[in-house]
Amino acid sequence: MMTSSKHKNQIPDTDAAWHLLHDRLHRDGLLEEQAVVVSYARRYIALRWVAAAFIALCIGTFFLIYLTHRSGSVPLLAVQNGETEGVLVKTLEDGSTVYLGKNALLHYPSHFGTQKREVSLTGNAVFDIARNPAKPFVIETQNVQVEVLGTAFNLDAASNGQFRLTVLRGKVKVSDRKNGETVFVTAGECVNEQGSRFYKTFNQDPLLFSRFTSNLRFKDEPLVNVIRVINQISNHPVVLEDTSMQDEKLNVHFYNNNVESMTRVICLALHLQREFRQDTIFLRQ
Fold first, then answer.
1. Cβ-contact 264, 278 below 8 angstroms
2. What residues does the FecR protein domain cover (predicted)?
3. C-alpha separations of 20 from 16, 29, 130, 201 in Å
């Protein structure tokens, strides 16, 4: 059978066919109904996702608030003396100073609470606590809790729970966290725990505290805190006349804790000048 050349060479007009179909659907009302159905379906799905996201957010927020309220904890900072020599010195928010021995680890908050000043210690350290009767200073170890108002003492808290506390000045309260037993330790006394009982003795090591202040290191410590520590261990006062320099950070290791050599190192590091007036050393730019 032969086909005429007229039909053989004819090309279908797809655009015209599509427009005819579109017009037919539009006249029959099918196109608009479908569009409405699709539009409502999309809105319904979108609303379901928004509602689900809102519910998840509410649940997550409630859970976070619940955990925070239940634990009552705040984020803690940590400092550890990982060096083989030297004592790492850290000044806390309240002005208390902690001298950390080798491998000692201290956890502390960036801001103390309204009722007490609480930290935790693993290792050997000397504490020089700023006095504040309205807000006791509390140190948590594995087995005991140490509470002070303002004093200086050495606390060696081993990771296995054993501890030894020696008081330089003031009075310290030590409590067993398991059985609640309490003992008060005063200047010149030591206490440790054997089994579940406290035993007090007198300090037989007169150089205990001087060993912690004879080889000091400071890491990212403001100049004002470094000078405060120098004044705690020296008989020659150091005064920073230029208060604009007090927040300058220092990373320094004093191998000779003579006040003259320490102030000389500070002046070299921060390009300061020093002046001797009687027994006082003044630092300025």
1. no
2. 91-173
3. 6, 14, 91, 107
- Write out the two tokens for 53: 């996201």
Encoded tokens for 255: 């191998």
Query: For residue 191, how far is the Cα from the chain centroid?
Result: 30
**For the domain bounded by 76-209, which CATH number is listed?**
2.60.120.1440
For the chain, the domains span 27-71, 76-209, 215-284
Where b means 16+ CB within 10 Å and e means fewer, 240-268 reads beeeebeebebeeebeebebeebbebbee
pLDDT in tens, 60-114: 333 333 333 333 556 789 998 887 778 999 999 999 999 999 999 999 998 999 8
Q: In what order do the strands lie in the sheet with 273-277?
A: 238-240, 280-284, 273-277
What is the Cα–Cα distance from 155 to 166, expressed in whole angstroms? 7
**Confidence at residue 23, expressed as pLDDT on a 0 to 100 scale:** 64
pTM (two decimals): 0.72
Class of domain 215-284: alpha beta
